[in-house]
């Protein structure tokens, strides 16, 4: 399996990466808002602290999955060849930017490494869904 320069869609790589970075920042704002609300709730209802913390972490995972999946979907819609390769490159690029930024701020954490690794399959799920939708649309036409 050889990859040629003409197989790359720079537009797909750029669109998917920019979407993930911008939408990811918006989703980070949503997550931080919920985390702040959880802290306020924990002060007033200390018995609920563990449950509300678990809900906030679950929300963070869902927002991350949504961000990476939609980025993969957008990448796949624009790329015409080697769609999964484009999705992997977008995940590595955006994950690398995010990981490098978190390293400069707080050092290496288990969650940072885990989210970097999980970004690849989450993005590929978005690519796979786009491919599946294109195939079902082509069959219906």
From TrEMBL:
Domain of life: Bacteria
Annotated TM spans: 12-34, 54-76, 83-104, 110-131
Keywords: Membrane, Transmembrane, Transmembrane helix
Descriptive protein name: Uncharacterized protein
């Amino acid at each position: 399996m050889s990859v040629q320069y003409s197989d790359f869609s720079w537009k797909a790589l750029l669109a998917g990466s920019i979407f993930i970075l911008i939408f990811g920042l918006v989703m980070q704002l949503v997550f931080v808002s919920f985390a702040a609300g959880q802290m306020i709730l924990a002060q007033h209802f200390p018995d609920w602290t563990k449950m509300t913390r678990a809900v906030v972490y679950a929300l963070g995972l869902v927002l991350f999955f949504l961000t990476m999946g939609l980025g993969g979907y957008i990448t796949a819609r624009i790329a015409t060849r080697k769609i999964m390769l484009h999705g992997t490159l977008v995940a590595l690029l955006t994950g690398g930017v995010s990981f490098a930024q978190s390293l400069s701020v707080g050092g290496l954490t288990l969650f940072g490494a885990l989210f970097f690794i999980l970004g690849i399959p989450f993005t590929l799920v978005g690519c796979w869904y786009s491919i599946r939708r294109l195939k079902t649309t082509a069959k219906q036409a």
